[in-house]
C-alpha cells in the first residue's frame, strides 16, 4: 500500500461488509493498519503475508499514555502472536523516498 495513505474514511471501515477490521479502525491520518487488516483477512487459515511499510507503522502512538488506534491494533496482532518478523530496511532503498522502510511478516499459523 501507499505509505501513510489518508484517503480511507471512518465510513470506509464502518460500512465494510467483509468484516475485515476486527482489530479496530485506524485513524484517518494513516491507513497502514487498515491495509494490513485487509490483507490479513484475505489469507487462508494457514496463510502468511509480507508487506513493505514505513517505519512509523510499527511505532506511531508508542509511548502515548492516551488512546491510540494504531498502537491498539498493533497490540492485538502481537497479543494474538501473529507477527513473525519485522525487518528494518536501509534508507534510500525505495524509489521516491529517502526514508527507511520495514518488511512486516504476519503468519496465521506460526510453528
UniProtKB/TrEMBL annotation:
Pfam families, alphabetized: N6_Mtase
Residues covered by the DNA methylase adenine-specific domain: 1-110
A Gene Ontology BP annotation from the UniProt entry: DNA restriction-modification system
Domain of life: Bacteria
Keyword S-adenosyl-L-methionine part of the UniProt annotation: yes
Keywords: Methyltransferase, Restriction system, S-adenosyl-L-methionine, Transferase
Record's catalysed reaction(s): a 2'-deoxyadenosine in DNA + S-adenosyl-L-methionine = an N(6)-methyl-2'-deoxyadenosine in DNA + S-adenosyl-L-homocysteine + H(+)
Its EC number(s): 2.1.1.72
InterPro entries tied to this protein: DNA_Adenine_Mtase, DNA_methylase_A-5, SAM-dependent_MTases_sf
GO terms for MF: DNA binding; N-methyltransferase activity; site-specific DNA-methyltransferase (adenine-specific) activity
Signal sequence segment: none
Enzyme class label: transferase
TM annotation in the entry: none
Protein name (Swiss-Prot/TrEMBL): site-specific DNA-methyltransferase (adenine-specific)
Amino acid at each position: 500500500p501507499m505509505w501513510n495513505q489518508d484517503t480511507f474514511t471512518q465510513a470506509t471501515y464502518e460500512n465494510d461488509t467483509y468484516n475485515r477490521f476486527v482489530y479496530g479502525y485506524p485513524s484517518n491520518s494513516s491507513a497502514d493498519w487498515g491495509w494490513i487488516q485487509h490483507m490479513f483477512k484475505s489469507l487462508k487459515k494457514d496463510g502468511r503475508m509480507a508487506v513493505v511499510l514505513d517505519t512509523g507503522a510499527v511505532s506511531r502512538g508508542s509511548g502515548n499514555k492516551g488512546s491510540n488506534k494504531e498502537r491498539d491494533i498493533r497490540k492485538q496482532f502481537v497479543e494474538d502472536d501473529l507477527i513473525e518478523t519485522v525487518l528494518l530496511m536501509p534508507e534510500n532503498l525505495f524509489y521516491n523516498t529517502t526514508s527507511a522502510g520495514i518488511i512486516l511478516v504476519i503468519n496465521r499459523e506460526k510453528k
